[in-house]
Amino acid sequence: MSTSDGASMRSLSEISEEETMRLSIDLVAATRRNLGDLTEKTLYRLGLHCSLLEELDLTDCFGVNVTGLYYLSKCTRLVCLKLGLCTNITDKGLYSIARNCSEIRELDLYRCKGIGDDGLYALSSGCNLIAVRGTGLTGLATRCHRLVKLDVKDCANIDDSGFMAIAYYSRNLQQQFLSVELVYK
């Protein structure tokens, strides 16, 4: 995170609340590397002070949880949210995002095993999603007709009904990433 006054590069978790407010007013995009050790406090600060935030990559951040997603849901201009490998998030956390972040177009839930149909269905109720990665396809397929990219690698909670819904409703789908595990009985 660079500053206009030439201050050294530091993470959001290392600076004071007052300095956070000054630096984050114009923050539009952030990634894990410039947020530092991610805690609920860091996510609280982002939600409170970064109202212009549009892109956020939190891939592989263990500090992201239900409470953290609640704080992030205050960033109502989010267009891209990457939560791949964030193993502490659940459907309940997605409810907050679904309720407040209606501008999201791309959502990465790669290997978020706590996410299921209920969370993704909540997202689909007001979605503008054009790219989704995760489980729970039926709700998305029936409500997100502009979906163009789907990545469901290593998502174990997908059954045939989800794929049937995708095949029927998602006419704009251009890319689909699947992994298959063969089980012999």
Automatic annotation (TrEMBL):
Please give a single GO biological process term from the UniProt record: SCF-dependent proteasomal ubiquitin-dependent protein catabolic process
GO cellular component annotations, sorted alphabetically?
Answer: SCF ubiquitin ligase complex
Looking at the record, the residues that make up the F-box/LRR-repeat protein 15-like leucin rich repeat domain are 37-130
**Entry-linked Pfam families:** DUF7885, LRR_6
Please report the name of this protein according to its UniProt entry.
F-box/LRR-repeat protein 15-like leucin rich repeat domain-containing protein
Q: Which organism is it from?
A: Anisodus acutangulus
> Lineage, please?
Eukaryota, Viridiplantae, Streptophyta, Embryophyta, Tracheophyta
